[in-house]
Design a protein that fits this description.
two-stranded antiparallel ribbon; elongated; about 180 residues; alpha+beta; about 40% helix
C-alpha cells in the first residue's frame, strides 16, 4: 500500500546547491493562505462595524462613547501564555434632547458608573475583534477609540446596515483592512 501525503505536491525540497526550496504548489498555497487571512480580517472588520452600529441603533439616546483597551500577556497553568484585553468605556454622551433610560438616571442626572458598566457589557463580546482588526498581530499597545453616532447616522437611518460600510465610516484610518484600493 502506497502512503500519500496530505500535502499533495505542496512540498519543500532540499536542492543541491540551493538548500531548502518550496515547490510552486507551496508558493501558491502560501499566497492562498494570506489571501484567506486578509478576507477573514475584512469579515471581522464588518462584524465590528455591524456590532457598533447595532449598539447605536438599539440605543437612540447614545451619541458617542470611548473604548479604552489595555492588552496584557497572561500565563496559564501549563506554561503557555495568551493575550487578555481589558477594556473600559468612558466619555459617554447623550444625544441632545434625548431621554436617558430610567435605569441610568438618578434624580434627573445620569449615573455614569452604572451607564459605563452597562455599555461595557454591550461591547465586551466584540472588543477583542475591534482590537485585532485595528492592530497588528501580536500587538500589546494600549488602544483608545472614540465612536460617534454622527459618523454612521445616515447608514442607521436607512434600514439594514452593511457592517463593512459602518466600519469604513467609524475607522477611516483603517480602510486597508476592508478595501484593496485606497481612494485618491
Amino acid at each position: 500500500m502506497k502512503m500519500e501525503s496530505i500535502a499533495g505536491n505542496a512540498k519543500w525540497r532540499v536542492e543541491q546547491g540551493y538548500g531548502l526550496r518550496p515547490t510552486p504548489e507551496v508558493m501558491a498555497l502560501n499566497d492562498e493562505f494570506f489571501a484567506i487571512k486578509a478576507r477573514i480580517r475584512a469579515a471581522d472588520a464588518a462584524l465590528v462595524g455591524a456590532s457598533i452600529a447595532k449598539v447605536f441603533i438599539e440605543n437612540p439616546w447614545l451619541k458617542r462613547f470611548t473604548i479604552k483597551s489595555d492588552p496584557t500577556q497572561e500565563y496559564d497553568d501549563s506554561g503557555g501564555s495568551y493575550r487578555c484585553i481589558n477594556a473600559n468605556v468612558t466619555d459617554i454622551s447623550v444625544v441632545p434632547g434625548a431621554t436617558l433610560p430610567e435605569e441610568f438616571a438618578e434624580d434627573g442626572d445620569s449615573d455614569s458608573s452604572r451607564l459605563e458598566d452597562w455599555l461595557l457589557e454591550q461591547v465586551e463580546d466584540f472588543n477583542g475583534q475591534i482590537y485585532d482588526v485595528l492592530n497588528e498581530e501580536g500587538s500589546y499597545e494600549d488602544q483608545k477609540i472614540e465612536l460617534d453616532r454622527a459618523s454612521i447616522q445616515d447608514l442607521i437611518g436607512r434600514g439594514d446596515v452593511d457592517g463593512c460600510d459602518a466600519f469604513m465610516r467609524l475607522f477611516p484610518d483603517h480602510l486597508s483592512v476592508v478595501v484593496t484600493e485606497q481612494p485618491a
